[in-house]
Amino acid sequence: MNSRTSNHWKKQLPVKKNRPIFLLLFVLLIVAFIGDLLTGNASISPIEVWATLFGNSNDAIINEIIRNYRLPKAITALITGSALSLSGLLMQTLFRNPLAGPDVLGVSAGAGLGVALLTLLSSSVAYPFIAIMGNMAQITAAIGGATFVLVLILAVSARIKDSVTILVLGMIFGYVASALVTILQSFADPDSLKVFVTWTFGSLGGVTWDKMPLLLSLVTIGIVLTGFMQKSLNSLLLGENYAMSTGQHIKRIRLIIIAISAIITGAVTAFTGPIAFVGVVIPHFARTFFATVNHKTILPATLLLGSILMLTCDIISQVPLSGRTLPINAVTAVFGAPMIVWIVLKRKKL
Fold first, then answer.
1. Residue 4, in any domain of the structure
2. In the predicted model, what is the mean pLDDT of the chain?
3. How many domains does the chain have?
4. Which residues of 24-40 are buried (b: 16+ CB within 10 A; e: fewer)?
5. Which helix or strand (DSSP H or E) is residue 252 part of?
6. For the chain, which has fewer Cβ within 10 Å, the N-terminal or C-terminal residue?
7. Dihedral of CA 243/247/251/257: which sign?
8. What distances in angstroms separate CA 41 from CA 272, 293, 317, one per listed residue?
9. pLDDT over threshold 60, residue 12
10. Which one, of 94, 61, 71, lies nearest residue 258 by Cα?
11. How is 310-333 classified by DSSP, letter by letter?
12. How far is it, in rounded angstroms, from Cα 269 to Cα 151?
């Protein structure tokens, strides 16, 4: 980011002007959340949803659908949208490139490689690890894969300062990870292969109530830590030299950003499968929407917009189509791809 970034940062909208916008986003979030509860193959009225949520429904089938499927799925959409958007915001700040994100830089592919190693080798090499780690095995594998790719990218960025080159190399790392996954698939047994391919479609419906606390706690920790780093993140926008001149410890900030991004991206990917484009487009959309790059405003805006987008995509994925539900990854791609084209056209370069 150049000198215009500094002016853009200082040009932040007054707090009083931001409040109505945030209020609007909260309203949209609530509407999208309710809409997600009302959407599905089974037609359930708003009155029945209300009765189920507040314990006045006597219909066991509706209770099961709302409480144990649609409600945890909607909450998962909130967590996933905010987590991926936060990860994208952190990467764009670290690499000072608006097209950086967990999927573009290959971090999601690295997490997918970790899950592939675990799933496709579960009957042989990975079995002792699964036996020891239990439910944490898939999350640990995904976080490990995401961390590996992030460390590679960071090592490259220490030698190469050009953000476009770093972006391209990140994409190459992602392609390499995908190629390794393909090789693993060619050696996998049919049962493991079927499980993994289904996982790659992406789904918000696989997070049950017993898994929710783990996913929520990991993402919440990432959000809280980022909240304490707002001053450091704003300093990074003006360059590492400026950040160091203000007393910031660049190496420590880098490590914290890597840790947060890897943990939240790996956790979400492990539970929901690879979900593309959300982490790339939402931070940029938040900056454009609020006309600022100040993280004091952009951080909550990114979390809200990411949640709204994921809920909206989940609603669209459940539109009846021959009794099937669309893969959430395909829906986010339909939304995200045109936005990336718009970003490139607006900047007239990468």
1. no
2. 83
3. 1
4. ebeebbeebbeebbbbb
5. helix 250-272
6. C
7. negative
8. 20, 41, 11
9. no
10. 94
11. HHHHHHHHTS-BTTB---HHHHHH
12. 18
Residue bearing tokens 């993994």? 196
Record the tokens describing residue 15, joined without a space: 């707090």
DSSP state string for 61-98: HHHHHIIIIIHHHHHHHHHHHHHHHHHHHHHHHHHT-T
The answer to the question of residue 6 being in a domain is no
Instruction: List CB contacts of 198: < 8 A, sequence separation 6 or more.
Output: none
Concatenate the DSSP letters of all residues of 113-176 into one string. HHHHHHHHTTTTTTHHHHHHHTTHHHHHHHHHHHHHHHHHHHHHHHH---HHHHHHHHHHHHHH
Structure-token match 């009155």, residue found? 47
Q: Tens digits of per-residue pLDDT, 197-230? A: 888 888 888 888 988 998 999 999 999 999 999 9
By the 10 Å C-beta count (0-12 exposed, 13-18 middle, 19+ buried), 239 is classed as middle
Give the largest CA-CA distance in the chain.
64
In this prediction the pTM is 0.85
d(CA 22, CA 338) in angstroms, rounded, equals: 25
Retrieve residue 342's tokens.
């718009």
Q: Evaluate whether residue 3 is within a structural domain.
A: no
Residue 151 lies in a domain: yes
CB 212 within 8 A of CB 75: yes
Structure confidence by residue, pLDDT tens digits, 61-86: 888 889 999 999 999 999 999 999 99
The range of the structural domain enclosing residue 300 comes to 14-347
Contacts of 292 (CB under 8 A, 6+ apart): 8, 9, 11, 12, 13, 298
Tokens, residue 140: 């640990």
Does the pLDDT at position 7 exceed 60? no
Residue with tokens 């209300």: 50
